[in-house]
Each structure stands twice: as C-alpha cells, then as structure tokens.
Amino acid sequence: MHTEQRRRAADLFKSRGTEFALLANPANVTWLSGHALPVLTGMSPFAGGPSLVWYEDGEFTLIAMEGTTGGADTEVISYPWFTYQGPITSSEKLADIVGGLLKKAGRRPVGAELRHLPAQFKPEEAVVVDGWLDPLRMVKTADELVLMRRLFDLTGCGHRAARQGLQVGMREIDVWGLVATEVERQAGRRAALACDCVVSHRQDNSGGWPQDHQIRQGDSLILDLGVGLDGYWTDSCGTYYPGEPDREQAALHRAVEETLVYATSLVKPGAAASEIDRRMREFLKKAGYADYPHHSGHGIGTVTHEEPRITPYNPLRLQAGMVIMLEPGGYIPSKNAVRLENAVLVTEDGCEVLTHHLSS
Amino acid sequence: MHTEQRRRAADLFKSRGTEFALLANPANVTWLSGHALPVLTGMSPFAGGPSLVWYEDGEFTLIAMEGTTGGADTEVISYPWFTYQGPITSSEKLADIVGGLLKKAGRRPVGAELRHLPAQFKPEEAVVVDGWLDPLRMVKTADELVLMRRLFDLTGCGHRAARQGLQVGMREIDVWGLVATEVERQAGRRAALACDCVVSHRQDNSGGWPQDHQIRQGDSLILDLGVGLDGYWTDSCGTYYPGEPDREQAALHRAVEETLVYATSLVKPGAAASEIDRRMREFLKKAGYADYPHHSGHGIGTVTHEEPRITPYNPLRLQAGMVIMLEPGGYIPSKNAVRLENAVLVTEDGCEVLTHHLSS
Question: What number is the ipTM of this complex?
C-alpha cells in the first residue's frame, strides 16, 4: 500500500538527480515502507540500529531486523537479531549490508538523512536530504485515509471512556487508566498513546501527562489523545466534567466549540495556514477570551505533528487530501480550561471532519 | 546521583587517552546524566535530535532540549524546542551547540558512539567508542539500587493485578489492561512497559505482546513485565492460572520453580555466566522437560537487556553489585507454558532476590 508514496519520492529524487539515498527518518521509513517502527519500548537492544530505507535508481528497499513486516509490496533486506547461542552481531550484520549498498554507489553522491542516520553509515559523498520528503507526506493517499479513519474511530473510544468514567475524587492517572485500557481493549493489542490529561485546577492547565492530581467538584479535565498504531498517529482533544459544568465553564466551552466550528468552515484548498490561525484567534478573542498559548493545529500522519502547521507565521496553503488537526483552547490558569480538537480532511471544496468524539 | 558513573567513565577515557567524546547511546546518556529519554511516544518531533553527552577532559555535559531534567548535579546545555510563533529550529540550534563543542577539539580525535550519533554530528577525527561504557554499567551504584528496588516493587503490583484478575473468557489484552492500569495507578504517572503476555494455547507460547487470544479453562498465562521509569528498567516473569492448575501444569510449574531456586543458589561473585546457564538447563532437563529456547537471564539497568547475559557462550564472571535476571521456562507448544523470573543482586557471598512477585 506504499507504492504511491514511493512513486512520489522517486519522482523527487529523479528531478533532483539523486541516484542513491539512505533514508533514516522514522517518519519516512514508515511512510515509504509501511514498516511501523517500535515506539512503546524504544528501539530493541537487539537491533543493529534503526530501520533504514535504501533508494537506488527508482527502487526502494527496507533494511530491518528479521521478523520485521513492511507493507506487502515492500522489498526487505533483513538481518538476524536476537540469539542466545552466541554474541548478538546485529550491528555488524547491518553494517555489512549498508556497507555493501554504499559500495554500489562508489564515489557517486548518496542522499542521506543525516539528522537520523547513525554516523557509522555516513556516506563518503553525502548529499543532505533531511526534510526533502516532508512536503510529500502532507497529502494522504487513499490507503492512508482508510487506516487513519479506523484509527480516529479507535481514538474516539478512549474519549468515551473518559467522558463516561470521570468522577470527582479520581486522579488524572486513574482517568488515564480507563482511556488507555479502552483503546487497547478495542484494538485487541497494545497501542502507542500520546496525550495530555490535565485537570483544570493545575496552574498550567493546557497540557501535560496525567499525574496524581485529584479531580475536584467544579473541575474540568482536558484529554488530548493520540493513538499510534501500524505506523500512523491520530490526535484529538475533548474536555470533560465530573458533573454539570457551571455557567463560566459552559460559556468558555461554548466559545471554544464555536471557534472550532468556525475554524472548520475556513478549511478548503488554497486557504493559508496563517490565515486560518489568525482568524481562529480573533474569533475567540471577540468572544472575550484570552489567546491560547499554542498552535491552532497541525498536520498528522506517520508523526504526531507535521506540516501544515496552523500557526501565525506559516504561509503554506492547504491542498485537498491533507489531514489537519484544529485545536482552539481557552485557559484560565488554575481555574478553567477547555480545548476541543478535531481532525479534518481537506476536500475539493471544503473539508470533512474525521473525528467524532465531540459529537457522539 | 550520577557522579560515580561519570567518575568510572572519566577514568576509562583517561586510561585510553581520550580527551573528548560525544556519547549518543541512550543507555549511556541516561547512565551518565540521569536524564530519562522519552520512551513511550518516541522522540519528540520538536527535538533537534537525540540527547547527547559531551565529554571533555574529565567533565561531562548533557545536551538536551529545554525543559529536560537530568540528575541534580548534571551540567546541561539546552536548546529551545517547540515554538508556534515561528519555524521550529531545534535542529539548527543543536547543530550549533555540537559544532561549537567539536571545534574545541580542533584536529584532535573525538571519541564517538557512531551507532547512535546522528551522522550530521560525526567528528572529522572520530575514535569509535561504541560499547566502551557497557562493562561499566554492569555494576550498579548504591543510588541505582535504591531506584531499582522501588521499580521492582512497582513491577510486583502489575503481577498482583494479573494474578488476582485473571479469569476464563478474558483475552490477553484484557489482562494486560489490568496490569498496565495498576502499575501506572501505583506510580501516579505513565510508565513505559515492556512485556510478554501470552496464553499457553498459543503455538509459540514463550512470548509476545498481548493480543485478543481468549483465555480458556485449563490455560496458563505468562506475564513477563518490565517497567521503565526515570530512565531505568525492571524485568520479571510470573505464570498465572484462571483456576487451579491441573497435575501436568503443577508439575511443570514446580520444575521451573525449583530451577529458579537452584539458579539463585549458583549466583555469587566469580561464577561464570555460561556455567550458570548450563547448570540451569541441565537441572530442568533432569526433571524431564525440554530445554527452553531462550537465554537463562541477563543484566538490566538503563536498558532492558544488557551484560552479563546468562547464555551458553558467555565466559563473563559475576561481580558483587551486578543485578541479573534469572528466567528458566518450560514450554509445551499449544498446551502448557511456565516461565518464572526473578531479579537478583550479586552480593559479596551470594545474592539477594530483589523481586517479590513470586512469593507475595
């Protein structure tokens, strides 16, 4: 399912006269190969290094540990990993493989993602290609959208668990337990989870991992949840109350909600990211609330935050096929906090909301 | 609390005439600085690269994103990470810092962990120091032991949750939900979790992440659990039954248990890893069971598996202060499976068991 990605990347390399390349940015390795890198427990101590992708004259090959699965149509060169019958030689074996490939390039230049490539594999004649593929990842393929829709639905299950389970006296980490358990229960397997899970009486109540802060009567809880599965990430944010929100909370919630609806109406091909950002902030300020101290949104895919960033400085214009998060928020330190975040798919004439946790 | 580690490393560098070094192996960065690298969600997309440690003439400095905390007595050079008001320039800023440090070395050689160091930071005159610090990490400091004891206790809470909650009809992932929730509930925050969580009727019932395999009457469940917190890891394994084990299961369980007790009796300074491995396997075979298809144990610390590996080929001799895992197992594919694993601290005249999940 990653042939379209490889076609785009091959076109780019050809247009820039790049015959060989060694790609190491995990976001690109996944995007080119379908190989989901391990996230939850970090790199295996038995891996010889991160998984890499070798590009040569129009073709891409994944280089990864034995047992690694990529997309069905991905060529893989694998090396043995764990053994208990002798010393683990994964590093040496991976070095042999990469050495052999680099030798094919001879003295010709090799494109290399030097920010992620281990120094031991640095080509003698390296052309820096860090960032080259970032713009190509912005527009999602049909297959990516199928996967991402499924993951956004899964993410919604986590929100439902928080909304239904939240009670006065629980701690942030207790609510988090409900969320994480429900997502993995629905997935039938472990999932990487990115989050903010913070109670509104925190001084900085806009984000952070769940701690043992207790939820009191009159608090709200922000749950910003991303699920990472099969190499792709989601994002989403909801704000929940252990009882009925009071008048102040309800007013803030409504203002943020209306800002999100307004933001959604701005999304269409050609719209500038900075313009969406500016108009979202103005809309919320007009409702009488302070500007939020974070971006208005961002792209998402094989990495949790990517272009297009919906930020004050970004002139980038939206294109059909992009998936962006929109996340206005209102914060009154140590008191009230609301953030609401949807994913939208930019369509030919507007957008489609991909997340349903705020309406279900 | 990492001065002892830095003293050991500085002694090594001095003895080998290394004046400058750039360390990038996450296990060493944590070990030298106390800085716990992010595990659960992978490297932040706003990080300019992995955290690094710079060594210069006896002194160590952590190079990491703003907001990073190391040990209290660790020198830190930090660079700005996320901003929404302009493009994120963490990579450029980190490159400036590292470039400035490398310039100080001039044309003198710089030790570098080339397997983990990003290629963009490769020193012109690099001396490969990959693996140099591995032997130094084996013997734990008093401070490390305080932290690890606490983490082993926390790990035990996960086992208790599985033992008490396991029921016929649950799936592996449901049991896992109990385990993960209990560990994070007790920790009061999120924790990285490494695991096997497999039901005995799986064909390969020795390991794997929890899936949606259902637990049936007559099954056992292997829970191999590692908790990663504050930069350090634990490990542990227990085998649990949804009811009373039958005669065959009880006999296998007893044999593995006795192998573990026997293994523990072999641990003392001077004992060779390969000899412990050999005798553990023989002991279990004498009880009438097939050899297990994995190592007999391993060291643990800032990485889940490290030296000393308790394996057939390893001549390494134990020293007081090492923490090793011992994990004999018996497996009858698709039928019965038992693995029991304790952590032991090698003492002057034997060892002390650090895990209590099998006896409490």
Answer: 0.96
